[in-house]
Amino acid sequence: MKLLKTRPDWHYLVLVSAILFVIEIINVLSGRWLNQFSIVPRDISTLPYIMTAPWLHISIAHFWSNFLTFVILSFLLLEFGLKRYALVSLLLMLSTGLFVWIFGRDGQHLGASGVVYGYFGYLVLAGWLSKRVWLALISVGVVFFYGGLIWGVLPTQSYISWESHLFGFVSGLFLAYQFRQSK
Predict the structure, then answer these.
(1) Buried b vs exposed e over 74-108: b needs ≥16 C-beta within 10 Å?
(2) Tens digit of each residue's pLDDT, the chain (183 residues)
(3) Selection from 170, 156, 73 nearest residue 112 by Cα
(4) What is the fold, at CATH topology level, of the domain defined by 4-178?
């Protein structure tokens, strides 16, 4: 088990978190002008925004609800290594965004929750598949503390992109299975 003091990886998490925070401040100060770079399903002009939408939020409450869980799950995902964290993050943004763009309901889709649900799915499965005690314990902890996230994949409220949650979670499970042989 690596300790925070001996892990340089956490500096990258601080950097990513700071970028998210700065983008939120700019978005607030600009009257949410940046939100024009969100996903609108099947609108070809918004296809490139599958990479910008996860960085944007509709409100401060939306930002904080994603940010805290993002930081915690990111920290846990870093136990699989910095390269794995970066690759999983990139692939989750691409896959979740693409599936939302293809299958999502009309309207704007934005926020980090698709990536958060992807981290959740990845962490739930990857620890078990690794056959390493420490990583399996992370899986157990994630299920125990964040298991309630699973209800977010259901269409309960019209203003929530449950599609992002669902596709993020499924993509996370898929990536955990695909990367099961290597660290």
Answers:
(1) bbbbbbbebebbeebbebbbebbbebbbeebeeeb
(2) 454 455 668 889 999 999 999 999 999 999 999 999 999 999 999 999 999 999 999 999 999 999 999 999 999 999 999 999 999 999 999 999 999 999 999 999 999 999 999 999 999 999 999 988 888 898 888 888 888 888 878 787 877 889 999 999 999 999 999 998 654
(3) 73
(4) Rhomboid-like fold (1.20.1540)
pTM given for the model: 0.92
Question: Which H or E run includes 177?
Answer: helix 162-178
Give the number of other CB atoms < 10 A from CB of residue 127: 25
Q: Are 160 and 107 in contact (CB under 8 A)?
A: no
Residues in the chain, total: 183
E strand intervals along 28-127: none
Q: What backbone torsions phi and psi does residue 100 show, to the nearest 5 degrees? A: -65, -40
Contacts of 74 (CB under 8 A, 6+ apart): 13, 16, 17, 85, 89, 119
At position 141, the amino acid (one-letter code) is G
Residues contacting 51, CB < 8 A, separation 6+: 93, 94, 97
